[in-house]
Structures are given as structure tokens and as C-alpha cells.
Design brief:
Elements (H helix, E strand, L loop, with lengths): L2 E5 L3 E8 L2 E8 L2 E5 L2 H9 L4 E4 L2 E5 L1 H10 L7 E2 L2 E2 L6 H13 L7 E7 L11 H13 L2 E7 H9 L7 E6 L4 E7 L2 E8 L3 H12 L3 H9 L13 H27 L6 E7 L8 H11 L5 E7 L6 H26 L1
Parallel strand pairs: 1-9, 9-10, 11-14, 14-15
Antiparallel strand pairs: 1-2, 2-3, 4-6, 5-6, 7-8, 11-12, 12-13
Amino acid sequence: MAKGLDVGTMNILSARQDGDETVFVQQRNSFVEIDYSDMAEQMLSRSEVLHIRKGDQVFIVGDDALNFANIFNEETRRPMQHGILSSDEQSAIPMIKLIIEQVVGEPDRPNEQLFFSTPADPIDSDLSTLYHQKTLESILGDMGYDPEPINEGMAVIYSELADHDFTGLGISFGAGMTNVCLAYYAVPVMRFSIARGGDWIDEQAAQATGTPVDKVTSIKEDDFRLDFTTDVGGVEGALSIYYDNLLDYVIENLVSEVDQEDVEEGLDVPVVVTGGTSSPDGFEALFEERLDEASIPFSISGVTRAREPMYSVARGGLVAARSEEQDETAAAEAAAED
């Protein structure tokens, strides 16, 4: 039984097949630290709050971390920053290991196939994704899986563009990064990322309005609509401004990369957007409007949002993992017949 894993800056999600249904498990990729006490330990355990004790501190991990942060008026801490493991957070690896263990569980068999998402190196930053990728491989390998990295943008294409022969432009608007992949019949033609995403929007809006970042994030996730009718002076108005700026920035870099990669003219490709940052109503319409205004050497047949933006990358990893598993089974059966 193969699995897909989306290791995102904001959320970590797994996908597995159960009959005709795809089952997803999700946890927020964050934690908050509180002082240890016997009473706190008992209450957390009784309430089944995901946590880990280290000395005199207790780390509350996952979905419950944001709730505790809002109650205690503190900022959550993240194992990841800008799409990769945070070099500024000493607890990054044990925290993300705990979250991953909760999300994917134990393998159903030794060396179960698991494809996990990894970003491309960003073109607007000196960040390298190699350490992040190898660390995740080690964590998953120690758990008993056979881990394989898959480019996040390519995972979107596997998930959403089967009806287009896996040809098109897949863009994952995550929290830490935005990943872009252009594929032709499942062969990547262009892959890159930029070091801006939902976190950048939240941080800019928080700074502009004097609102805590976690509060801005909660507002954005609570029925925020990208329609530019909100008063500019509030948090939702600031979110709209920085969403607009992010889309312009993504398209500016897309045009630059297409020129450098010398992508064939005359293509007519669909565009699919996904990721939590693409969730607000009005997002795909605004993005299509911006693309129509851009100088791209190929035509865009339309922009659609993934069926379930939060789950698209994990689903794409599952599609790739199941395909790999089937190929290995077929090869083993052919070898046995010889």
C-alpha cells in the first residue's frame, strides 16, 4: 500500500488509498512551548492533545498549537521556514518527526513506497533544499518506508491533470514557497520555486496593520474572499493588497524562467493552482486575469483551482507512489516468469 506525503510549511498531510476512497490525514506544522506541570501533563493527555515533554517544557504540536497560541497570546513556532527545515529553530527536527509520525503512521509492509513533496531550489534566494530533502528521507527511512522525493509542482500535475495527459502548468501556492512546474506528457520541462507564499502575505499584512501574525492567519483561513471590496484599512484589505502583489511577483518570475528555458512556442496548456494560499474565493479568477496580461510565449487554455487545494500535493504523491509500486510489481512478476 503506497502513500503520498505533503510536507508543507503550514500543514503536513498524508494520502493513502482505501478501496475507492483516498484517505487524508492532516496536522498543522507548528508547535508552542509551555511550562511543565503534573496538572498540565494530565490535562493534555486526557484531552488527547498531541505533545511531547523535554525537561521542564512541554511542546504542544500540530492543530492544537494554534489554539494554545491564541489563548496565551503567543506566536506559534515552526519546524519549517520558507518551505524547508528552519535553521533558526533548534527543535525543528524532533518536532517535524513527531508530526510526520502522527500523519503517516507505521508502514503497512517493510519498505512501503512513499513519495514526499520537496520544493525546487528558489530562484530568488540562496536557500538550498538538499539538507531538507535528505533529512526527510532519513526520518521516513527510519520509520520503515522506502521514501522518494517528488517535486511539489510535479505532484500537482500528477494530481490534477490526468485528463490532459499530465501536460500543463502546475503551481502550488504554499505557505513558505510557491512552486511552479511545466510538464509535457508527464515530463518536466521547467521547475522552479520562489521564496514567497502565504507566510509572506501574513507577515506583510501583520506588519502593515499592527496585528499578530497568527491572528492574520486565522482571519485569512476564515472565509476570506479576494474581491477587493473590503476596507483597505483592515486586515482583509491588507491581505488583498499582498495577494495581488504575490501574483504579480510569481508571474514576473514565470515569464523570466520561460525565456531562459526557451520553452517551445505554440503550446496550449491548462494551468492548475493549488495549496492553502490559493484557497480564497476569487483567487483563480485574479490569477487568470494577471496571466492574460503577461507576455508568455505559449497560450493558456484556462486556469482552474484544484478540487481540494489542501490535499492536491499529497494526492499527487500518492499517484506517483502507486505508479512506482505497480511498475515494481510488474517487473517482479516478469522476472519470476523468466
